Fold these 3 entries.
Entry 1:
Amino acid sequence: MVTDISIYNKILSRILKEQELILGSLAWQIAEKITGMQIRNKESFDVVIMGDPKSVINNYVYRCERIFGSFARDASKQAVEYILADMRPDDIPERLQ
């Protein structure tokens, strides 16, 4: 069974929330440059993935990691570990494994 897109939207929203705590407004500046991500509402962290969900999430985490190092990646993983626990390993974006 393939993971529903709404789960990936929830993962991305949660990661954005965590990255905003670390990077501040830079987290949103990075998000705005990610192809396949639509920001609906920053205040409620409402985002929608319009492309390949694993690719969009991997790209966002990678770009945060380039700025803030492995801490950004680790924070992203910790922010969504409760969601990832219920997913098949093949459905988890590589940068969150």
Entry 2:
Amino acid sequence: MAGHGALGVLLAGAAPRIVLRGLGLAGLEISASELENSSNFRPLRSNPMKVQKLLHTRMRVNDIERSVKFYQEALGLEASRRFLSPRGAQLVFLKTPGSEEEIELCQMPAGADAVVVQPDLMHLAFEVENMETFVAALKGKGYALSDGPMKTGSGSVIAFVDAPEGYEVELIQHAK
């Protein structure tokens, strides 16, 4: 194929050599160590099984409006978008402060099995600046802690509040 380059690796001898031919590279040879020590060397980082980033976490709920109200009132999250999925489920995406990830709340159409959250199945964790102040505000809005506050071995303070469907929400005040 005229006009196309070729790449070859010579394995004969003590040190493998890379050979480039074509595209004006008439017989250019370079050893692997010379290439690695070059300031222009960039190793290939192709991993087709590596994801780019976490986009959202989906949580099925029985009463989407009750759940949205909890996340807005108790945690200060904001609904970023609402729509009906192709399968007829109601979806609400909640923005989480300080990150790009969202929480997707999903209520399946009428007739679907009710959601029953198993104890300790999963939880969301949010950082709070001041646990005492945050808990007082929660209580003022009618939300009670399900556990805590308690100090951890690292000096952080944690507490838990349950969302309407029974999903656990952890609150963390990092040690100062």
Entry 3:
Amino acid sequence: MRSALKFQNVPHKLQCCILSMSKQQYRSEMGIMGDILDVTADGGRGGVIVSAISRKANLSHYAVLDKCEKLVEAGLVESVKNDRNRVFLITEKGLQFFQEFKRFQGLVESMNLRY
């Protein structure tokens, strides 16, 4: 109740800004997929194991597996089983998509939109 009292004399527009700043900004599924493609692109020909994607994209192990499966089905990422690990590699189609995605992301950010 105290926080409501603090906003009593604040103009409406400023109050909206203050309230929106305190809300957690979540990534869209598209943003998450873009982060995974970014990590796999950085991995190069050697690919990237699930735990590295999880750490670099800030996702749980199971979320990475779920999203990577979707990327595999779309032909953007390839899954390869090596000695002990499952490795994900970005495909040529994935690289082309990721480049276009980054262009789109830049355009959206320049317009101050959220995707």
